[in-house]
Amino acid sequence: METIKAYAAIIGGGASGLMCACIASKRHPNEKIIVIEKDNRVGKKILVSGNSRCNLSNLSACADNYNSSFESGVDFLLENYPPSKVLDYFYSIGLLTMTDSENRVYPLSRQASAVLSVLRNELKRNKVQEICDTEVVSICKSGDSYKLNCADKTIVAKKVVIATGGKNNYAQKVASNTYKVAQSIGHNITALTPTLSPVKVESKVIKSLKGIRAQGKVTAVINGKAVKSEQGEIQFSADSLSGICVFNLSRIINRAKNAEIIVQLLPDFSFTEIKDMLYSRIELTGKDNVQELFTGLFHKNIGIALLKCSNIDTAKTADKLTNSEIKALADTLNSWKFKTIRSSDFSTAQVTCGGINGKEIDSCTLESKKAKGVYLCGEAIDVDGDCGGFNLQFAFSSGMCVGEQL
Ligand SMILES: Cc1cc2nc3c(=O)[nH]c(=O)nc-3n(C[C@H](O)[C@H](O)[C@H](O)COP(=O)(O)OP(=O)(O)OC[C@H]3O[C@@H](n4cnc5c(N)ncnc54)[C@H](O)[C@@H]3O)c2cc1C
After folding, report:
1. Most buried of the four, 101, 224, 352, 386, by CB within 10 Å?
2. pLDDT at 176 over 70
3. Pairing of β 129-131 and β 33-36
4. Across all residues in the chain, what is the average pLDDT?
5. What ligand 1 atom has the least distance to the C-alpha of 178?
6. Is 397 in the pocket of ligand 1 (CB under 6 A)?
7. How confident is the model at residue 403 (pLDDT cuts 50, 70, 90)?
8. Do residues 174 and 135 lie in contact, with contact meaning Cβ atoms separated by under 8 Å?
9. In the prediction, which pLDDT does 347 show?
10. Contact present, 370 and 290 (Cβ < 8 Å)
11. Which DSSP string do the residues of 126-162 spell out, in sequence order?
């Protein structure tokens, strides 16, 4: 069995591990620093992020954008490794960025590969070795170092970084328990659920809406109580709702037993305004088919689905609608209910909610409280952010912080 000795071993070649390796290798030019990656190449998730454009940060990142058992760590990182510091660093290694109207930051080239390339080029300049196709199974103390156990080799290192990411293995072929390394030194893992994912719904009309996009407001209702609303583009698929606004509700919904999403396609209109608008459109369409009520307003299939969900015969003419049918239609338009199905499917999720318990990590150094000389960073920790660059920002800022500790 081969044995490799290093000063620092970073387990996981994702955003956080690569950033950590860049910073650490610059600080210790004469020490051997290695990145161990179980997949056949590093940074696969960076390449698929942001629809392959990589939304790498968000200038308005603040504590409210994150859910976690590591609040003090998130606060520390936002203050000491804010987006500006992460972006200055990227600039120093060659990446130019642009910021959109919602403060989301992308590479100027709009290519996710640019982000990965500048990180890997810096690693090459700093002589960091990438060891791919190698999964670390466990770690244990060995004298003043740690022994990292892999199937065909042993790695001995003074400092170890666990940057193994979340349970969602979206872009990766190799699926396994990403938390076993942290568990091998005694860390506890909080409950894991998928987040930033499409939300599956039970609805007689959802199939007919497949492929349609509409602007609107979505509200998560848990046990009858509205708990979170978001506005933006809603995307309909054969069995689910998605789009950034829905992604941002998925965390709450995937953890709730009794949840529904309320869709408002005219969120700026009151119920009375919607009803008045329906009456004036009925006057306009008169003897036309009732489906024409929505011509010029929504996609045809949305109109039909709204009628069906209001129990209205789609074959009748608009002037035959009764007052109670008009009220039912206004109700649906004002508050279109979709019963949700709780999902534990990580394959379509961008992020994992839950992870290594933040209470077991020093919030200023990110050192494990279970094992001195072992550090944790990135999505492996129980921190998940909203959609919009907040997760990569956390991965990069925590990677920077740990890189400075090594
Ligand atoms: C499709 C998609 C799009 C996304 N888009 C965005 C976006 O635009 N903006 C944003 O902010 N966030 C986005 N995210 C989320 C973001 O990519 C992640 O939060 C971030 O990449 C996490 O980085 P990480 O380094 O912590 O983990 P990962 O990137 O998951 O890296 C962990 C690495 O560790 C390796 N590994 C795990 N266990 C072991 C082991 N035992 N031994 C060796 N190697 C191991 C894994 O193979 C992996 O390569 C997206 C995610 C997905 C899936």
Report:
1. 352
2. no
3. parallel
4. 95
5. 38
6. no
7. very high
8. yes
9. 85
10. no
11. TTPEEE-S--EEEEEEETTEEEEEESSEEEEEEEEEE
Residue 170 has pLDDT above 70, yes or no: no
How far, in Å, are 20, 112, 364, 365 from residue 373 at the CA level? 14, 32, 14, 11
Alpha-carbon dihedral 226, 227, 229, 234, rounded to 10 degrees = -80
Q: Give per-residue pLDDT as tens, 90-126.
A: 999 999 999 999 999 999 999 999 999 999 999 999 9
Q: What kind of fold does domain 2-193+354-405 have according to CATH?
A: FAD/NAD(P)-binding domain (3.50.50)
* Residue that the structure tokens 């890997």 belong to: 120
- Cα Rg for the chain, rounded, in angstroms? 25
Q: What is the pLDDT of residues 124-143, one digit of tens each?
A: 999 999 999 999 999 999 99
Check if 37 has its Cβ closer than 6 Å to any atom of ligand 1: yes
Specify the ligand 1 atom closest to the Cα of 168: 53
CB of 244 closer than 6 A to ligand 1?
no
What value does the mean pLDDT take over residues 273-294? 95
DSSP 255: T
The residue whose CB lies within 8 Å of the most ligand 1 atoms, and thus the one to mutate among 59, 99, 346, 350, is 350
Helix (H) or strand (E) holding 84, with range, is: helix 83-92
Q: Ligand 1 centroid vs 15 CA: distance in angstroms?
A: 6
Q: Is 17 in the pocket of ligand 1 (CB under 6 A)?
A: yes
Share of the chain above pLDDT 70, in %: 98
Every domain of the chain with CATH number 3.50.50.60 lies at: 2-193+354-405
Contact yes or no for 70/382 (Cβ under 8 A): yes
